[in-house]
Amino acid sequence: MTGELGGWALKPDQMQVVNPLLILIFIPLFETVVYPLLAKCNIKRPLQKLGIGGVLAAVAFVISAVLELQLQVCFLMFVDFCIIVQFIKKNPTRCNNVSKFYYSIFM
Questions:
Q1: Residues of the chain below pLDDT 50
Q2: Which residues pair with 5 in a beta bridge?
Q3: Whole-prediction pTM
Q4: Which residues of 58-81 are buried (b: 16+ CB within 10 A; e: fewer)?
């Protein structure tokens, strides 16, 4: 990961500042936009808000899992292609390191 965010390059020591900034941004946003929208949907109690937050977190994890599975399929196809190229050419290519990495991590 390069830490590039749009046109900005975010350095590792600057990541400590991101959390307080997000808190300062999201508290007024939630107070003025999100909570009034939830109140219009008759969701006013903290336990109801907590339940909706849990459901949204679960949906985010499912989306993350599906994305990870898709990335693994693409990576496996790349590794298999590199192994076929190695077999046909009978000489080591740059794919050799990728296949060693894959088999050391996933097998």
A1: 99-107
A2: 8
A3: 0.57
A4: eeeeeeeeeeeeeeeeeeeeebee
